[in-house]
Design goal:
The protein has about 350 residues and is α/β, with parallel strands linked by helices. The protein has 2 domains: about 140 residues, Glucose Oxidase, domain 1, CATH 3.50.30.30; about 200 residues, Zn peptidases (Aminopeptidase), CATH 3.40.630. The strands form 4 sheets. It has an 8-stranded mixed β-sheet with strand order 3-2-9-5-6-7-8-4. The longest helix is centred in the middle third of the chain and has 20 residues. The chain is elongated, with a radius of gyration of 24 Å. The structure holds zinc ion (ZN). Zinc ion binds next to helix 4. The site of zinc ion (ZN) has 6 residues, from helix 4.
Length: about 350
C-alpha cells in the first residue's frame, strides 16, 4: 500500500512562538514537506465576500507566502467555493494554514499532495503574526508492507463453520519524531479484547472453528480487511458470523451494533442474549456503515456486526488516547456477551 509519513523531527513557530505538535497543530496527513521562514497572508472573510475582492486576492503573487484560512461553515455557496479553491492551493502559495475551530483530529493518507497544509487551533496563530517558521518533512512510501495476522481454534464438531472475532491493530503511529498517537481506545482496546477471547477459546474449544483476525491499515481506509476479503484464506461463505471490535474502552452507556438492521435475526439473538444475561445497559441498533473493518465482510454477504462502546471519553485520533485514561466500564461484560452470543449461534 502507499502511505504518507512524517518520520523526522518537526518544528513550527508562529510569530516566534514554538507551537506544540499534536496539541496546537497537526500537519495534514497528505501534506508535502516544507522548510523555511514564510510570510503569512491572513485571508479574511471580506477577501472572499465579493467577486472583486476575491479577484484582487487571486491576482496577488503568493508564491512566497503561507495563506492562513479561518475555518467556518460558509452559508453562501460562492464564498465556500472561493474558500475551497484556496484550500486546494489554487492561489499557488507555499502552503496553507487552516485555523480550525473543531478539535484537532489526525488521520492517515495514502497519497501526498503537491503542497504543504497545516491545521492549527485558532489561538495558535494570531492575526498579528506575520511570519511562520516551518520544518516538516514528509516521506511518501509507494509500497509500504503491512500484514494482517490471524489464528484459529479448530472446531470440535463443525470445523468448516467459522465464528470470527476481528479487530484492527494499527493506529496512526507518530507525527514527527516524538509525537505519539497511542490509540488506546482505537484500537488497542478491541485488539486486547480479541486476544482475551482467543485465550478463552484456546482453553475452551467450540463445536465451530473460532478465528481471530487482527487487521492492519484500517486507519488508512480499511485496507487490511479489504485485502482479506479479496484474498480469503478460507471461503467467506463458511463464516457463520463475524464480530468486529473497535473502540471498546468505555461501555458505561452500552454498545452500538452496526449492521443491526442488516442482519435483523442475528440482532434479535444478540438482544435476547443480553436481556437474559444483563451484560450491557443497552445495545443500540444501527444500520450499515463503512466505519470499520466489518464493512467489506457485510458487502460480501457475511453476517457481521461492528460493536463499539458508548460512554464518556474525550479522545479520538489524538495523542491523549492513552490506556490509563480508559474507563473500561464494560470490558469483561462485552466479552461475556460475545461468548453467550456465539454459544447461541452454535446451538441454533
Ligand atoms: Zn478504529
Amino acid at each position: 500500500m502507499s502511505v504518507n509519513t512524517f518520520p523526522s523531527a518537526m518544528e513550527v513557530k508562529a510569530g516566534g512562538r514554538t507551537l506544540k505538535g499534536g496539541e496546537e497543530y497537526l500537519v495534514k496527513a497528505s501534506s508535502a514537506s516544507l522548510r523555511g521562514n514564510f510570510p503569512l497572508k491572513h485571508v479574511l472573510l471580506k477577501d472572499l465576500s465579493s467577486d472583486s475582492a476575491f479577484k484582487l486576492l487571486s491576482n496577488g503573487d503568493w508564491s512566497e507566502y503561507l495563506l492562513v484560512l479561518d475555518t467556518m461553515t460558509y452559508e453562501e455557496d460562492r464564498i465556500d467555493r472561493r474558500y475551497k479553491s484556496i484550500l486546494h492551493n489554487k492561489l499557488r502559495a507555499q502552503g496553507i494554514v487552516v485555523k480550525s475551530k473543531r478539535r484537532l483530529i489526525w488521520t492517515v493518507a495514502r497519497d501526498q499532495a503537491a503542497f504543504f497544509t497545516l491545521e492549527c487551533l485558532p489561538e495558535a496563530v494570531l492575526i498579528t503574526d506575520t511570519l511562520m517558521w516551518v520544518d516538516i518533512r514528509a516521506k511518501f512510501h509507494k509500497q509500504f508492507k503491512a500484514k494482517n495476522v490471524w489464528g484459529q481454534v479448530r472446531g470440535t464438531l463443525y470445523p468448516d463453520s467459522f465464528l470470527v472475532v476481528s479487530a484492527h491493530y494499527d493506529h496512526l503511529g507518530k507525527m514527527g519524531k516524538s509525537i505519539m498517537f497511542p490509540g488506546a481506545n482505537d484500537n488497542a482496546s478491541g485488539t486486547v479484547m480479541m486476544l482475551e477471547l482467543a485465550r478463552y477459546y484456546a482453553r475452551n474449544p467450540q463445536p465451530f472453528t473460532l478465528v481471530f483476525l487482527a487487521f492492519t491499515a484500517e486507519e488508512a481506509g480499511l485496507v487490511g480487511s479489504k485485502y482479506f476479503t479479496e484474498h480469503p484464506p478460507f471461503p467467506l461463505q463458511s463464516i457463520r458470523f463475524l464480530m468486529n471490535l473497535d473502540l471498546e474502552g468505555t461501555g458505561k452507556d452500552g454498545i452500538t451494533a452496526v449492521n443491526a438492521t442488516l442482519f435483523e435475526k442475528d440482532f434479535q439473538t444478540l438482544q435476547g442474549v443480553n436481556d437474559s444475561g444483563k451484560y450491557m445497559v443497552k445495545i443500540v441498533p444501527r444500520g450499515k456503515a463503512a466505519n470499520s473493518d466489518h464493512y467489506w465482510f457485510s458487502e460480501a454477504g457475511v453476517p457481521c456486526f461492528f460493536i463499539y462502546q458508548m460512554g464518556e471519553y474525550g479522545h479520538y485520533h489524538d495523542p491523549g488516547d492513552q490506556a490509563e485514561k480508559l474507563p473500561l466500564d464494560a470490558f469483561i461484560e462485552t466479552q461475556s456477551l460475545i461468548r453467550a452470543f456465539f454459544n447461541r449461534l452454535q446451538s441454533g
